[in-house]
Amino acid sequence: MSPVTALSSRLGAPRRVGAALGAVVAPLVAPAVERVRAWPVESQLGARRNAMVAGTALAARRAEREDVEAFLASRGADAPDAVASTDEAPSAARL
Q1: Would you say residue 95 lies in a domain?
Q2: How many domains does the chain have?
Q3: Nearest one of 54, 55, 56, 4 to 25, comparing CA atoms
């Protein structure tokens, strides 16, 4: 028994009125019910997609950081000077 039919029978409406009411209301309510039922699945898929994008971005940043560390390590003793000079604002004397 549909919820609309159950409600109309509790209210004392004749069965055919409940069936007619159900026929009118069901097409209006069905899309909303389907959206509510689909929401958890769509939400999980969206969260999974966001996590994959974030993981990819973090992996790219990690790879770039490791490349920079390897480059600076290959330069040897000049690496600390190179890092320090990029932190400072350029002065007129160095330009």
Answers
A1: no
A2: 1
A3: 4
